[in-house]
Amino acid sequence: MKSTTPIFATTALAAGALFALASPLAASAHINVDAPTTAAGAYTVVTFALPHGCDASATTAISIGVPNSINSVTPTVNAGWSVSKTAVDLAEPIDNGEGAAITTRTGAVVYTADAPFPDGLRTTFALSLQLPADAAGQTLEFPVLQTCEVGQTNWNEALVEGEAEPSHPAPSLTVTAATGGAHGDDHSAAETETTATDAEAASTAAAVTSDDVLARILGAGGLVVGAVGIVLAVTARRKTRA
């Protein structure tokens, strides 16, 4: 029994250390996406949360791909980042409702950092857009290419129902059924949300997401386990010497 206790204590210490280190990494592994409404035909603001770099390398640019079914987006301006839109040709021109033909759509929005954005800090990027009116039940993917000082991470892998989550899933949202007032030219809800998002983007570059909070809680739990392991190890050694 004298040899069992130190082994148990050492194992507990190692497990606690691994738990404390691994939990934050696992919780912040993806680029999260959120929107106040996902109703078909609705105007909304899609927000992307970036909480990490590329294997600890600082982020220099983020390119957000726009689904083919969305023709136009309005990106939010972020302090410390420049922003541009990449146009792509439409397969067929569409009428803008005023007799003129639209021949291009926004294929991607690119945010470029004025200075490399450190790993471990959080920021958000928000796009104001109208969801397709005929997309209820569909999942829209916004592939993101994250460029860093060293390397890139391409968040472009599709989530397949019934299969394990891929290593680099594309941020996505599922369009829900249309609701009353979702259609038309009333942009007031989206404009209100954009204003709120602008304020958040300017003040929460280093804020902690709910995932980050969970990671800290799990990390703290790991440290407690590790501390218990240390106490057990020290106690066991004293008993052994005695």
Describe the structure.
With 242 residues, the chain is α+β, with helices and mostly antiparallel strands. The chain folds into two domains: 1-28 and 209-242; 31-207, Uncharacterised protein YcnI-like PF07987, DUF1775 (Immunoglobulin-like, Sandwich), CATH 2.60.40.2230. Helix content is 30%, strand content 31%. It is built from three helices and eleven strands. Strand 9 (144-148) and strand 10 form a beta hairpin. The radius of gyration is 24 Å and the shape is globular. The protein starts with a helix and ends with a helix. Mean pLDDT is 77; it is low at 1-28, 182-186 and 201-216.
By CATH's scheme, which homologous superfamily of the largest domain applies?
Uncharacterised protein YcnI-like PF07987, DUF1775
Low-confidence stretches: 1-28, 182-186, 201-216
Mean pLDDT: 77
Architecture (CATH level 2) name of the largest domain? Sandwich
Give the number of helices: 3
Question: What does this entry show, briefly?
Answer:
With about 240 residues, the protein is an alpha+beta fold. It has helices at about 5-25, 190-205, 210-240; strands at about 30-35, 45-50, 60-65, 75, 80-95, 100-115, 125-130, 140, 145-150, 150-155, 170-175.
What characteristics describe this protein?
alpha+beta, Immunoglobulin-like, four-stranded antiparallel sheet, disordered N terminus
Strand and helix layout:
Elements: H1 4-27, E1 32-34, E2 43-50, E3 59-65, E4 73-75, E5 81-95, E6 101-117, E7 123-130, E8 139-141, E9 144-148, E10 152-155, E11 172-174, H2 188-203, H3 210-241
Antiparallel strand pairs: 1-2, 2-7, 3-6, 3-9, 4-7, 5-6, 8-11, 9-10
Helix pairs in contact: 1-3
